Amino acid sequence: MPPWSESCTWATCRYDDRLSYTWIMLKYVGLSVASEAAATYYRLISPVINNLQLQEVGNFLRKDHFHLGIVPADHLHRLHLHLFNSQTYTPKGLLMLAECRRSEANYLTQYIHALLRVKMRDRFQLTVSATWHNFIRPSSDALARVLVPVLKELRDAGITVTVQVWNARDTKAYDMSQSLDIPQEDWCASWDEKMREERRVG
Fold this sequence. Notes:
This protein is of the alpha/beta class. The chain is 36% helix and 19% strand. The termini are far apart.
């Protein structure tokens, strides 16, 4: 398990005891090598953050996990957000995307907005995967209302955004990235057409 995946404070940090990460330990390799290794590590990984971890996106990006002055926001090239079971948890309680209240939508938007902290936006790839186990249309309405505006903002800032929506009933993924460019009121029509097209091809 990588050091950044666990909670850590300066008083209780345990990363220095993990011999599998000797490449970032100052006492073995020195500051220059450790810093470059940590930066390379962030450039190569593709972290997956799910519903229950969304509120931690900002902390993950700005935290000096290895205590080397190297933070993910300066070096990360890709991130995968996985939304599942048609629900997202926030500090205010359970957020049902298909019945999203404005205050809860604002929390979700705030969490995803944290990705604007990434330094190399022109090289950054964000993949958003959403999986629902209920009917498709309510879920697509929710995506349009809550996720599309903030994802368009990230894309306009230079981030490459890919949107994949999984329908668990037929275990298929639908690429809805192009739907970011259409009016929100046309989202469901686009979704339905995508479904019909996929079924004709299949």
